[in-house]
């Protein structure tokens, strides 16, 4: 003789686990992918106006000052001192 017991499910709801990306996460992933695609495009195309925007003034002087700043950071100089020296070098060579 078989029997079955049914328990009522009053107030209890079973939730299924879904691995669904939320909208903010999807937007963040899209934004990061767009930034990476833009950086790769700029690197491949080699747009000169980007260099002009990122390296204001005389590009050679700014590039040299930037290299000196990175060398100073690699040698253990503090960030504040390296940025100060960078700015002073740019101002000293400005025309």
SSE order and pairing:
Elements lengths: L22 H23 L2 H7 L4 H16 L4 H14 L3
Helix pairs in contact: 3-4
Key attributes of the depicted protein:
4 helices, 95 residues, 0% strand, mainly alpha
Give the helix proportion (percent range): 55-70%
Number of separate helices: 4
How is the quaternary structure best described? single chain
The share of residues in extended strands comes to under 5%
What global shape is seen? elongated
- The H/E string reads HHHH
- The average pLDDT score comes to 78
Largest sheet descriptor? none
Q: Which regions contain 5 or more consecutive residues with pLDDT less than 50?
A: none
Number of strands: 0
Tell me the Rg in angstroms.
Answer: 29 Å
- Would you tell me the structural class of the helices and strands? mainly alpha
Structure explained in plain terms:
63% of the residues lie in helices and 0% in strands. The protein is mostly helical.
In short:
With 95 residues, this protein is mostly helical. It is 63% helix and 0% strand.
């Amino acid at each position: 003789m078989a029997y079955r017991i049914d328990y009522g499910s009053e107030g209890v709801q079973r939730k299924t686990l879904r691995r669904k990306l939320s909208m903010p996460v999807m937007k963040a992933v899209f934004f990061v992918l767009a930034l990476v695609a833009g950086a790769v495009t700029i690197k491949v195309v080699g747009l000169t106006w980007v260099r002009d925007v990122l390296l204001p003034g005389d590009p050679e002087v700014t590039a040299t000052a930037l290299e000196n700043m990175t060398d100073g950071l690699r040698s253990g100089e503090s960030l504040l001192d390296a940025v100060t020296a960078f700015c002073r070098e740019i101002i000293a060579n400005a025309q």
